[in-house]
Amino acid sequence: MKSFIEKLMELYALDRKFNRCIEIYQQLSETLDQELGIEPDVETTRLFEKIMKERTAAKKTEVEKLDYFFFGRDQEYNELRMEFNAFRTGRKAQSLLITGEAGIGKTALVNRFIQEVDESKCLVLRTSCFQAEEGFYYKAWDELMNAVSKYYDHIGESIPSAIRKMIGYLFPSFISDEFEVQEYEFEKLDIIKNHVVERAVLDLVQRISDRIPMIIFVEDIHWMDRMSLALFKSLLMKNKNKSIFMVFTGRKGEYDPIEKIAAEGSQYGTLRRICLERFSFDETIAFAETYLEGVALKEGVKSQVFKETDGNPFFMVEILNHIRANRSFQGLTPKMQDVLKSRMNLLSDSAKK
After folding, report:
1. Cα–Cα distance between 284 and 266 in angstroms, integer?
2. Cβ atoms of 127 and 141 closer than 8 Å
3. CB distance 69 to 317 below 8 Å
């Protein structure tokens, strides 16, 4: 019988209010830990993992709808391809960290690159980080481990049940229903140090990449929890881009996760950064006229487009859609307001004032 918490989470998930599901689960986890020193039961955790997969799928669908128009970024795209070609041909390569402000085109750049990758010759894995999940350790790896499990099922190679249960200590969704794992089995695993489980995770991923080259795309690492970050850094150091090519995206700024992985990657030659900047005035106008299918803009309109968007591609698309529909500039669109709010959330309290 489902608990009240599970029913409430399901209702919010049906209404696509995924952040409320996260808040409820997080509050439950904190209360159980503080009051009883335990974690949520297996069924509640599995429901939460299922809802998070639904949210990731919903976000991917939305991104695909928004990224149909791609303009410019030739230099950055060629840099991405150059590193990947070096990786693909067995030469020394570096994984990439693509940084820039919200709406600058980081995901669009990666999507364009992935569209040209021959997925019959390499395995492409994707995961995203979310602000509401910063406090959940290893959360950025959930989708990856789910894909790892599916890959082993696809090639017909079984993972020893002991290994599955061990990894399930950190990733409950990695354990299939056939094991019928009870709560006490997880409690027994408390004696296992995290680094032992991490080693098992890295070994499984490495075994796949020994069979087929792997590309891992990680979006919005500025929201990544520190344990997930440490695991990615270990993977970089262990593999050194020999059979695993990684592409991270993150907001431009002084954010710890980005600066830590960038600094260490640069030090050891395993990762380098590509920074996307806003478009210039001329690039903004070329973007606008291309997007509007060759429509020539008046000089006054050109200046207004650049003033309203400041060369940010996301704002440009919103404004241009607004022009196309309303033939005027009448305030910020709701999506533009959301992006501005997300930028504000990244500022310190003093900066907000």
Report:
1. 32
2. yes
3. yes
Q: Across-strand partners of 126?
A: 217
Q: How many CB atoms lie within 10 A of CB 110?
A: 23
Token readout for 211 is 């069979």
| Domain 73-101+108-138+193-275, CATH among 3.20.20.150, 1.10.10.10, 3.40.50.300, 2.60.120.260 | 3.40.50.300
User: What type of residue sits at position 9?
Assistant: M
Q: Classify residue 297 by its DSSP letter.
A: P
Q: pLDDT band at residue 188, thresholds of 50, 70 and 90?
A: very low
Q: What distance in Å separates the CA atoms of residue 244 and residue 264, rounded to the nearest whole number? A: 17
Q: What is the CA radius of gyration of the chain?
A: 22
DSSP 323: H
C-alpha of 147 from chain center? 14
pTM for the model: 0.72
**Residues 65-83: tens digit of each pLDDT:** 444 567 888 999 999 999 9
Both tokens of residue 288? 């606008």
Measured in degrees and rounded to the nearest 5, phi and psi for residue 93 equal: -135, 160
Domain ranges, ordered by start, for the chain? 1-66, 73-101+108-138+193-275, 281-339
pLDDT, one tens digit per residue, over 95-124 is 999 999 988 999 889 988 988 888 888 999
- Separation of alpha carbons 250 and 100, rounded Å: 7
Overall size of the chain counted in residues: 353
Confidence of residue 353 (pLDDT cuts 50, 70, 90): very low
Cα distance between residue 353 and residue 347, in whole Å? 10
Q: Which residue carries 């017909």 as its tokens?
A: 156
CA distance 85 to 74: 16
323 neighbors 288 (Cβ within 8 angstroms): no
Q: What percent of the chain has pLDDT over 90?
A: 27
Residue showing tokens 């693909």: 88
Bigger pLDDT: 209 vs 192: 209
